[in-house]
Specification:
The protein is about 45% helix and about 15% strand. By secondary structure, it is α/β, with parallel strands linked by helices. Helix 4 links the parallel strand 4 and strand 5.
Amino acid sequence: MSNATSTNRTLSGKTAWILGGGSGLGAASAEALAARGARVVLSGRRADALERVAARVIEAGGQADCHRLDVIDRDAIAASAEAIGPVDILVYSSGTNVPRRSLCDLDGRDWDRIVEVNLSGALHCVQAVLPEMRARSAGTIVIISSWAGWRMEPVAGASYSATKHALPALCETINIEEGHNGIRATCLMPAEAATDVLDTRPNPPSPEARARMLQASDIGETVAFITTAPSRMCINQLVMSPLHNNFYTRT
């Protein structure tokens, strides 16, 4: 973890709450934001995973706290938001999918769980931080969607695609309703990234394929770029992919 080199882009004194902070894109976002001086608060279901990420942040000289919760628990989100205090940056990277995802195989309970985690959890976290952001007339929200939220892709499945397509609409609504309050939202839509979620695919990609994908650190650095942009600037949507984009080359 390296220190930020530009004092006018530092996040020193800011608090960043990262949902899904125990692994993958959330963990990488936490490390990138902490490297720029932010105090990061990590939330997710697995306390051991959160503590491992926090330990890495602290070992590198950053500040990190953990608040374990399940993003489908609205009361737990509200309680954590109150305990954390004012949040300057919200990063929602929680997401899930299932192997049996085609319309003919998808179970209704799996659909409900995916909607709760990928979409409803994002809404509840946004609603939990908005009052304090409004009070300070400032706040940055980054919701990590997916390439599947930008273009339809057969491997994603109906529930994942539906929820990820809804997230840009949520971010645009935030910008419409809250921009005059100094609050901005970005929907970040990365293509394939080499994280554990790939293991839920019916046919997980090989190590060689994963090496050509975006890495978690690529997304983490992009989140840092978004959150350190001048306050007059709103990056409404950002789509990113590896140079070897499987969604273009797949036959």
